[in-house]
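Q: What residues go here?
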């Protein structure tokens, strides 16, 4: 079998999109605490996720219950873990079988054929990951739009009650808040019903 040759290249989008932010050295202690998790917060996240997983295993979650969010925990249930192991085993088997076939039929290695065998086996997983990713993107954008709308309403209320002389805000300086750069505050933890923002880079 002829060896597939693909010339690799890198392309750059002519339209560069950047998001302004501040240096870590300019963060206040309060901003640092609101941007990154500490050990105590991580322990709290883990405990909450374990409680939610137990409810998922016993079907103790009501339909539409907003108190608990199972997003991202599906693969950690017993059934989810079994499915992941099966998918990984099938992918490994497909690659090994293709490699064995090539060794039997030809002295040359067709790397693309091996990649294609892996892709065919994992296509359903890839499709499901895209579906879940699109769903999370919609939820995150709805959350951000609502937050921006609330900020605008709050700004209008404050401007009517406060003097016009004030320092410029982060938005006026075109600086990204922790939410805008994909970082979430310590009150928005995994397992709570808080859609998490996503970061999308400029398309290449």
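A:
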């Amino acid at each position: 079998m002829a060896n597939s040759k693909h010339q690799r290249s890198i392309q750059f989008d002519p339209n560069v999109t950047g998001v302004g932010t501040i240096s870590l050295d300019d963060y206040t202690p309060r901003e640092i605490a609101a941007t990154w998790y500490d050990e105590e917060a991580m322990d709290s996240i883990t405990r909450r996720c374990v409680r939610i997983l137990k409810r998922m295993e016993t079907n103790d979650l009501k339909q539409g219950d907003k108190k608990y969010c199972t997003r991202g925990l599906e693969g950690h249930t017993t059934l989810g873990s079994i499915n992941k192991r099966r998918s990984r085993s099938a992918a490994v088997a497909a690659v090994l079988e293709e490699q064995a076939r090539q060794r039997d039929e030809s002295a040359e290695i067709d790397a693309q054929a091996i990649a294609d065998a892996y892709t065919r086996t994992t296509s359903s997983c890839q499709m499901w990951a895209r579906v879940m990713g699109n769903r999370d993107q919609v939820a995150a954008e709805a959350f951000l739009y609502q937050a921006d709308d609330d900020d605008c309403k709050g700004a209008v209320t404050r401007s009517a009650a406060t003097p016009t002389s004030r320092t410029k805000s982060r938005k006026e300086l075109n600086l990204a808040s922790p939410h805008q750069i994909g970082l979430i505050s310590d009150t928005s933890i995994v397992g709570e019903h808080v859609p998490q923002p996503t970061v999308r880079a400029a398309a290449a």
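A: Context that may help when evaluating the design: Residues 163-204 have pLDDT under 50 and may be disordered. The first helix runs from residue 29 to 35.
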